[in-house]
Fold:
Amino acid sequence: MKIKAVSWAITLLLIAITPHSYSDTKASSGRVSGIPMEQLKAFAETYWQIKNSYVDQVDDKQLFEGAINGMLKSLDPYSGYLNEEDLKDLQVSSDGVYDGLGVEVVAEDEQVRVVSIIEDSPAARAGIKENDRIVAVDAHSLVDVGAESLIDSMRGVAGEPVVLKILHPESQLPVTYQLVRETLEVKSIRVAQMPQDIWHVTIKMFQRDTGYELEQLIRRATANKRVAGVIVDLRNNPGGVLTAAVDVADLMIASGIIVSTEGRTVDSYQKFFANPGDILEATPIVVLINGQSASASEIVAGALQDHKRGLIVGQQSYGKGVVQSIVPLKQNTAIKLTTSRYLTPTGRSIHGKGIAPDVELKQDATANNALPSLADKELQQAYDLLLNQVASGKVETKAQLTSTVK
Structure:
């Protein structure tokens, strides 16, 4: 049984937790513990100028957190400082468990739009739907506080009541809903059976248990029904836990390397191998990607592509091929630091490049975070390609498929 324990790792896009120890070094050549003294003096002078002359009083915590974050952000877009709230959010993205209402929202055009609803959540039971607009949360109005602040005000602790004002697409006046926050579990996978025994598996994000969750779904499907082919939908998947991506790829790859990482330290060099066996027993696979498929999504797509286990369909992926380690600091804070790059099984670095699809499809404006249907043109084309593979009994090459997609 291809179930592997997942090491403790919390992530937003692709992060590995790495314990670090620190030791003092002797001062030499004008440096203390490796810090250049001239730069340290300039930092201290800047600090005192701000404290003494800035137009408003500034909190020391704000200054030092800003300085730490500034150092990290100067390295790359993915490194940064994590305060206590950031760490909680990171844990939620890893575990998929949080206190809330069960609505996924997005701020767009100065509005807050509902993009998905968690099943059996307070929002689902109240009848809130996708594409509803949230115009107020308790005493906070969208007009008064703005979209981002309104989204923040939706957070809270399980058991706390909250009042939402919702504007339905077909309505002119908002409707008031009284809800109570609950502890919810966000499933990272959605599965739908399509005609002719094709299964559509949407992975929204790679959480700690995504590999185990997918294995259980596949085992239940194959035990009760025929699975002729599988569409693995990674569109708009920003990534997630590194080991979860390895676990997902491991289910579909019979043997060999899945991904490797490399960096400046000895610990950064790792190789992840598949356990023997393919849970789908060579069932044809098509993988859907787009420009928002990043990081852990690209690990899965790259591994299946290099092993010729699945046909990659869609648009060029995002191109995030670096790993961030979470280094704990004091007072429930941490830094997120890029410590390694990852390589696909054939040694490709996709950072800044992305995964090129075997079959390129035009971007479909109807494809979003909601569960797609056959009205989704990209999904329809992936479905047709997969049926061709099922009928032929083999994985076709890019050259063979050139004339298939119009």
